[in-house]
Amino acid sequence: MKHPSIGRLAGNPLWAMIAALLFACTATPQDEALRFAEAYDRLDKFIAAYTKQAGTPGMAVALTSRRGLLRVSAYGFADRKAKVPLTPQTLFEIGSISKSFTAIALLQQREQGRLDLRRPLTDYLPWFKIHSQYRRITVHDLLTHTAGLPADRDDVPSSLYTAVALHERSTGYAPGTRFYYSNIGFQVPGYLVEALYHRPYAEVIHEQILAPLGMDSSEAAITNSMRSRLAVGYIPFFDDRPTYRGEPLVEAPWLEYGAGDGSMAATASDLAAYLRMLLNRGQGPRGRVLFQESFRFLVQPWAKMDSDWSYGYGLAVRHAHGHTMFGHGGGMIGYTSRMEGDLDDGLGAVVFVNGPGNPNPVAGFALD
């Protein structure tokens, strides 16, 4: 739908250009939804073909501009056995997308002068220990996956002990010298959040991020009390061999989870509200969640990853064709997610699946 003034001024190229710019600045999400109608149709067809090929039980997709939510859609089932359709209100575990929430909570403490990201972690968490011949690990090292920590402590449940038990391990390289993705490396900052705020992690994330952004359906910890609102996660029936499309699925094991590397559960539209704040460089609907300087820490390419992406603070970032892209994926048992945004176009996509299927190509296709 064109802005009314564009047609009247079409004979004057200069005024037509000015009118188009004014429309770009004043267009509502409804205007944009009409403008993207053909793209939505292509996306629906792509998703239908992709989920059929991958054997995906259900998928939720939310698209947003920096002005507002453009579209949220749901496909397939939240519970295949009970034939419960997936809806925009269905919760998903979002896995490692949670890492950026942890980073934001710590950057807020930096804004208050209570945290120096370059000081050794032990200045804030004296109990933290790990065998190392190198300099002491800083908060910055942890937030950029350059601390030299192992990937996980999957041999013990997620708890404060998981972080304390690092005293049994050794660093693999000098901090700050290379990128190595570490989940335990973001669980430790989660406990730093609790130490600095003097409150439980989930409570901090709710008060500092979820509530200001109106993410009223989301949860900062995966607990039994919200299980009925979650899509059922599915995994392949066979766990001792490669899996193929068409093989049977079973319900994934249920686990509570509360650590800072992957404890969030969200609806697609709620995570789109979070993505919208990032597209607006820290500005939320009720005020700033982050100062602009702090936002730059999130998307600064601190550490080169194996691909054309680099890692900031809890977000991956890349520069391509004059655009700055950022995003993160997440994986939990039975759930996979992707959040991706374009800072220059001001558009973003959120994709959740509750079983087989990779959300990354769907998010990329949506933005393209």
Provide an overview of this structure.
By secondary structure, the chain is an alpha+beta fold. It has one domain: DD-peptidase/beta-lactamase superfamily (Beta-lactamase). The protein has 12 helices and 15 strands. The strands form 4 sheets. A 9-stranded antiparallel beta sheet has the order 3-2-1-15-14-13-12-11-10, sandwiched between helices. A two-stranded antiparallel sheet has the order 4-7. It has a two-stranded antiparallel sheet with strand order 5-6. It starts with a helix and ends with a helix.
List keywords for this structure.
368 residues, alpha+beta, Beta-lactamase, nine-stranded antiparallel beta sheet, two-stranded antiparallel sheet, 12 helices, globular, disordered N terminus
